[in-house]
Design brief:
Its EC number is 3.6.5.2. This protein is an alpha/beta fold. The chain has helices spanning 20-29, 71-78, 93-109, 122-127, 136-145, 161-184, 195-201; strands at residues 8-14, 43-52, 55-64, 83-89, 114-120, 149-152. The protein has one domain (8-199): 3-Layer(aba) Sandwich (Rossmann fold), CATH 3.40.50.300. The chain is globular and about 50 Å long. The structure holds guanosine-5'-triphosphate (GTP).
């Protein structure tokens, strides 16, 4: 991967144990590791080349450690990120509170960063709906308020994992195209209702 250009810096944020590393593992290596849980220390980086139409996009993904012990370090990793995947565990309401903490930080310190909320471990709900601790509609309302997109995923089954990262890349390509259009042809900004266009291009 040395010398490879990264198009989009993506940062994974969220409470420890919510499944950030598993999400990256599923997306990049299409696998789900079983065995004893190993918490991330500091952060890990992986790059993934993907296609959006006829374009090639390289995502550079920073998987941060969820433990509050590493909070200061996570701040270093989200700097300059174009996209943040803020994860919470669908079976743990405290993890959603932690997700809101990161959203608040990003909104005040990284205005140009598009936020993707990701409710993880949806397979546990398939097994037993009563395990849900974070209501889908509540989070959707919250996501609308903060102009974020919402996904519910399972790294175990793979549900919606590709869809999430594909959306990140597609949004990047749309914004890049939009920036070229504004430079070359001029575009009526009022036509662009998408929060991504707004958050990335209003400077
Ligand atoms: N059933 C199920 N378990 C999951 C899923 N994703 C992660 N897990 C489990 O949840 C635990 C924590 O997963 P990690 O991916 O290590 O969590 P993390 O957010 O990276 O944790 P930190 O590195 O401490 O921040 C592990 O035991 C995983 O096997 C999922 O989609 N379904």
């Amino acid at each position: 991967m040395s010398g490879q250009r990264v198009d989009v810096k993506v940062v994974m944020l969220g409470k420890e144990y919510v499944g950030k590393t598993s999400l990256v593992e599923r997306y990049v290596h299409d696998r789900f590791l079983v065995g004893p849980y190993q918490n991330t220390i500091g952060a890990a980086f992986v790059a993934k080349v993907m296609s959006v139409g006829d374009r090639t996009v390289t995502l550079g993904i920073w998987d941060t450690a969820g433990s509050e012990r590493y909070e200061a370090m996570s701040r270093i990793y989200y700097r300059g990120a174009k996209a943040a995947i803020v994860c919470y565990d669908l079976t743990d309401s405290s993890s959603f509170e932690r997700a809101k903490f990161w959203v608040k930080e990003l909104r005040s310190l990284e205005e140009g960063c598009q936020i993707y909320l990701c409710g993880t471990k949806s397979d546990l709900l398939d097994e037993d709906r009563r395990r849900r601790r974070v209501d889908f509609h509540d989070v959707q309302d919250y996501a609308d308020n903060i102009k974020a997109q919402l996904f519910e995923t399972s790294s175990k089954t793979g549900q919606s994992v590709d869809k999430l990262f594909q959306k990140v890349a597609e949004d990047y390509v749309s914004v890049a195209a939009f920036q070229v259009m504004t430079e070359d042809q001029g575009v009526d900004l009022s036509q662009k209702a998408s929060p991504y266009f707004y958050s990335c291009c209003h400077h």
